[in-house]
């Protein structure tokens, strides 16, 4: 089997429109009959849910800060198996990285040896777009900018000025997309809303695909895709929490990395899923329970009333099941959540922790996580933290000691009580 080809979609900065353009590209290429495998650079949970819907195929995360190069290449190759194209959406600007300077989309493109399509928001730009694009194209010899897509072009005259200026760069221009208010997706405090919450997502996707078909030279763009390198099988980075893991999955618990689930299955673990919002209990024979992150603060009343779910957690605790919660899952393990309106919703009460989001303060960054707990994972884990709520842990021992990307010590994270534990950290991989 020949190797699939790949491209990376990036931009000079966040907010340039690369997510919508990536969705449009996925949908337009799918309409051509192509099988396109989607991926997202970095720790983002939400964009991959959109791109997976657009591609009709699950998206994965490729995190160049948290994952070693061999794992990135192996995961990319595995994702691209059976596909015509691997399309990777970048995070932030092309060379934006963690505080230690590592983990940019440029790093990922260089590791995978894939060319970059640069999406440039030209609102309030004219001829100055040329030195901007030239600077990105020449900045790092190991990163190839294959060409440019202009976004939010104001008029035909504006486009002529931009096209004339860009000729000096020698880079291909794959197209220019006009300002379209219809090409805006709603957002909330942690990013985009989930696809099922956007109303008629399929109509939005159809509009994005038609816009790409109308304004982008797809054949010219595809001609620059590069075959992926040979790869080995992805290493199983983290062992499963148990031989039968019950995993919460619904709109309140939507943030579980596919590469972890696939890795656990590959190691022989049985994974069963349940919905706390539907008041389902975890499997009675599970020896581990995983509550991923999500948006429990938006579903406080429903979770508070989910007595079957909460009783299932209590029964599992009493028979010694390992119960682990990340971010939103950690919040649900506590006694209560205070929502943005100041209302308190009772949670499972497995940990004497209260979380609140009525006084929002953003906490964001990569973390190296040290622990001595019942988690069957090595110390020195790589993870990510992103939340606006805060937690009062009532003096319990923390689950993790934490360092940021620069190695600066952070406040201890989470809480442990017996075999029940959790924190705001999303674990990505082991070193």
Automatic annotation (TrEMBL):
Domain CobB/CobQ-like glutamine amidotransferase stretches: 245-428
Assigned keywords, A-Z: ATP-binding, Cobalamin biosynthesis, Glutamine amidotransferase, Ligase, Magnesium, Nucleotide-binding
Site (Increases nucleophilicity of active site Cys): 426
Miscellaneous information on this protein: The a and c carboxylates of hydrogenobyrinate are activated for nucleophilic attack via formation of a phosphorylated intermediate by ATP. CobB catalyzes first the amidation of the c-carboxylate, and then that of the a-carboxylate.
Superkingdom in the source lineage: Bacteria
Organism of provenance: Devosia subaequoris
Every CobQ/CobB/MinD/ParA nucleotide binding domain range: 8-189
Catalytic reaction(s) noted: hydrogenobyrinate + 2 L-glutamine + 2 ATP + 2 H2O = hydrogenobyrinate a,c-diamide + 2 L-glutamate + 2 ADP + 2 phosphate + 2 H(+)
EC number, as in UniProt: 6.3.5.9
Molecular function, one GO term: cobyrinic acid a,c-diamide synthase activity
Record's protein name: Hydrogenobyrinate a,c-diamide synthase
A Pfam short name: GATase_3
Enzyme class (EC, first level): ligase
């Amino acid at each position: 089997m020949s190797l699939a080809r790949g491209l990376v979609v990036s931009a000079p900065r966040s907010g340039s429109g690369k997510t919508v353009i990536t969705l449009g590209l996925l949908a337009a290429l799918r309409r051509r009959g192509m099988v396109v495998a989607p991926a997202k650079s970095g720790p983002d949970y939400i964009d991959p849910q959109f791109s997976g819907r657009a591609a009709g195929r699950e998206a994965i995360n490729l995190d160049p800060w948290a994952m070693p190069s061999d794992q990135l290449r192996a995961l990319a190759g595995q994702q691209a198996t059976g596909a015509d194209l691997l399309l990777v959406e970048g995070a932030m600007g092309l060379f934006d990285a963690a505080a230690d300077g590592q983990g940019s989309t440029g790093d990922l493109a260089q590791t995978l040896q894939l060319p970059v399509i640069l999406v440039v928001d030209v609102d309030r730009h004219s001829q100055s777009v040329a030195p901007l694009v030239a600077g990105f194209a020449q900045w790092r010899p190991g990163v190839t900018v294959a060409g440019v897509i202009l976004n939010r072009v104001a008029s035909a005259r504006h486009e002529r000025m931009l096209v004339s200026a860009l000729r000096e760069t020698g880079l291909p221009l794959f197209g220019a997309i006009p300002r379209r208010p219809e090409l805006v997706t709603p957002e909330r405090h942690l990013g985009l809303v989930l696809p099922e919450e956007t109303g008629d997502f399929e109509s939005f996707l159809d509009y994005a695909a038609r816009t790409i078909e109308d304004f982008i030279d797809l054949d010219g763009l595809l001609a620059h895709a590069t075959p992926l390198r040979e790869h080995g099988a992805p290493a199983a980075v983290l062992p499963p929490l148990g031989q039968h893991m019950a995993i919460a999955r619904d709109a309140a618990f939507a943030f579980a990395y596919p590469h972890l689930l696939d890795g656990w299955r590959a190691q022989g673990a049985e994974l069963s899923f349940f919905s706390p919002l539907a008041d389902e209990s975890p499997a009675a024979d599970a020896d581990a329970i995983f509550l991923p992150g999500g948006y429990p603060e938006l579903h406080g009343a429903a979770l508070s009333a989910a007595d079957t779910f909460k009783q299932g957690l209590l029964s599992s605790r009493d028979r010694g099941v390992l119960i682990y919660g990340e971010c939103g899952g950690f919040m649900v393990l506590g006694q209560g959540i205070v929502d943005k309106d100041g209302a308190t919703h009772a949670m499972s009460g497995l940990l004497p922790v209260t979380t609140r989001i009525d006084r929002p303060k953003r906490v964001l960054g990569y973390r190296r996580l040290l622990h001595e707990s019942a988690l069957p994972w090595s110390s020195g884990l790589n993870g990510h933290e992103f939340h606006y709520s805060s937690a009062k842990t009532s003096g319990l021992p923390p689950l993790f000691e934490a360092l940021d990307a620069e190695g600066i010590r952070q406040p201890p994270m989470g809480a442990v009580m017996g075999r029940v534990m959790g924190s705001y950290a999303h674990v990505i991989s082991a070193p």
